[in-house]
Fold these 4 entries.
Entry 1:
Amino acid sequence: MIDRDGNTSDGFEAPFVDNLDATAEVPEPGTVPIPIEVFYDLAFLEAAAARDISGVYRALQKAKVSQRHIASLTGQSQSEVSEILSGRIVHRYDVLARIADGLGIPREWMGLGQRLPKLLGAFAAEYAAIEEELFKRSQSKCSRSPGKKNC
């Protein structure tokens, strides 16, 4: 565990604390939907800083937060949470931001400051549409050639 000053329970300073945005403070008890103790768990903080959502979810489970509750907070299905816990990596900014917001994790802790959305705002919907179209095309090809490599 880690205290508010960034010191671990063994007396050493946590190595990642300097990398966190100093303007993002630990939330106050009762202001977040998950147990406040999680915000003092070194594994949770390191996972959040690395955008390791699987690690974030494992820390939440250790704090007795169920997959269903995680799913309801983050706007995901329980099966998506399970897939992430099994190793699926989350890369998309909008999904990372939704997870951070849903769990009450300051976006800055995950390197999700406000500059990126402003820069990408005009292109976000277009990018999402292109990504969806490419996915549909790949699925269509695979349905016509089920034995084909990469399907």
Note: The chain has two domains: 17-113, 122-151.
Entry 2:
Amino acid sequence: MVLRLHSELRVPERLLVIDAAEQVRTSYARHFEAAGFAVRTVACFSEAQRLTPASFDAVIADVCQPTADAPDPAIAAALRGTGAAVVVLTAYGEPARAALAARIGVADAFLHKPVSLVWLEMLLRGRIAARRHGRRGAPAPLPA
């Protein structure tokens, strides 16, 4: 009984989704809300800056948008400073950009769209769990 009560009181992971495409934001919100996340969506980085980024456990950001309002490494670096797990998604990125992001450590993962939302959910849960257990510098392994 106590275990059941504890699980019912569990605080959901808080997720921020930044993507210019409304359909993508809606799709991600539906999936992650159904999976138990509390989701907030915004269209661009400037909208995200008006929020309190530190209040999120994870951020999914499409930062390589053709109309991005800031250079993508700068966006990811700013998000990285929040303590949230940061996953950068792009449909426009080049391999060199992904390599640069990895070298400077701006994100937990730099992925090319399309991405399986089930796989992305597992990735985020692993990264969030790693941070909660104090393994911030060593991200959890990627799901298989």
Note: The CA atoms of residues 90 and 126 lie 21 Å apart.
Entry 3:
Amino acid sequence: MRRLARFEEHCQSTLGIGDSRARFSTYFLRDSLHTSYLAQAFHLVRVEQFLELPLDSITAKQLRQVAGGVGLPRWPGVQHVTQPISARFQAVATREAESRGIARVHLDAVWWSVSRDADALTPKAP
């Protein structure tokens, strides 16, 4: 745990990443859950429902779209997300995930694949 804390401090000071601990943990746990070996070894399925949706400009745009632009602030950028702003976006993510029957941590994968598939169907200029 100390190593993780030191790494997070290094990221914050060297890379200028604000609140790197929460962001690092979110991505690390999400990616570990998607890796079946780690998920089985550490019983990560038990915590799946508690993991947050990684927030960035793409997921924020999708969440604002889902919410109809109501109840969510303008996206301030990853480095300026505060806990209250994150909580508002996570609340919308929770509702959307429940309507789809999935955990909110997986929404970005759903939206990424939809975008990827739409790009694949778009005719390319010769």
Note: The helical segments are 2-15, 20-34, 36-41, 57-66, 83-100, 107-121.
Entry 4:
Amino acid sequence: MRFRIFCGVCYTCEVRTRNKNRMPKTARGKAKKSGEETSRAANAAVRATLAASRRPLTDGEHARLVASINSLPIGFVMADTDGTVLLSNNTTEKILHLEHAPRTIIDIGAPFQGTLNVVEQYQLCIKEKRVIHIPEVTVRSRFIRTFFVPVMIPIGHGDVVGVVLLTEDVTEQTLLEQAKNSFVAIAAHELRTPLTIIRGNAELLPGTLPPGESSAKARAMVDAIQRSSIRLLDIVNDFLDIRALEEKRTSFRNNPFDIIELTKEVLTDLKERAAKKNLSLTLSTPTTSIPAVAADRDRTREVIMNIIANALQYTEHGGITVEAGIENGLVKISITDTGVGIEPDQQYLLFQRFQTVSDRFLHSKEYGSGMGLYVSRLLVEGMGGTIWLEKSAPGKGSTFSFCLPSTNVPAETI
């Protein structure tokens, strides 16, 4: 779902929401249609309102403006820089349970008391001249998504002349998301015990089989059972890890360590897997001394492992190169592959939960769960770092990078 709010002569901004990543297909279709209607009405409303500031509206223009604003499926409020509401729609009153049309920003902030300081966010929007997105706050047991959008003259770099405040009731989507998360967590817990038993018995079975051709076939089947049980257990554990990370229940032991040595260990562990596809794994020699990283060593290992394993999955020729460096006082690790690359219109799916780039499956014999990069993002952010797609081109490969806090301690002294 995408809202575009702009005045044709003075301001353009675009706010992207992630509803389609967490709604069923039918709901996404409705949301898309609703978003398009919202876009058209909001565009007309902002243009007309700003035009009204230059000249009085005729009765017909005023009627069309009011109709446009009131037809929006989300709450719409436009206020000037003094906090006076210039325009609002009926949906705002309904969503925020207001008894009358708001006259000031303070009126709008009253229902949010204790959950969101609306006046503070409004002032911050004016001061920093940027869109402020509040994904979710509670108003009378309802979940509300809020946007503060600065209106500037001239386009993009002028003075702020007002703020558009959008409110949307996302209670249904939020409850659906919570129900889905609970189901996944319960299912994962219930699956882990029987899968552990299957895996353990599969490991013991080969030792009980007598020699012979029939036993060799049975051993191959047992090996397949073991491999599959390991993969299923890994997926189940990923589900549980995601749940813990999202709920901030994961603890990080951030201690100094040598990330170059850690990377060498990961490359050694993946060497056999790369050799099966005749791919190279290379660690470029840093041009400068890399200080120790202040992060969780085991979690960092998981991040590097996830990214390189992902690169191996989608690379058939060439190899993977890892580089280390310093950027803005942080230690930066970049992992470049010569794989299939990612189409520009698919890149927004990266680092989202259960999202995979569909076009890449055509070039891979393996199926991905869509959790590796998402888990990596949660881990890196949990350690105070950032992760991103540096560059990618179809048929040429991709480069993923992440940064972690550094120390002033030379890595070789750790």
Note: The longest strand covers residues 397-410.
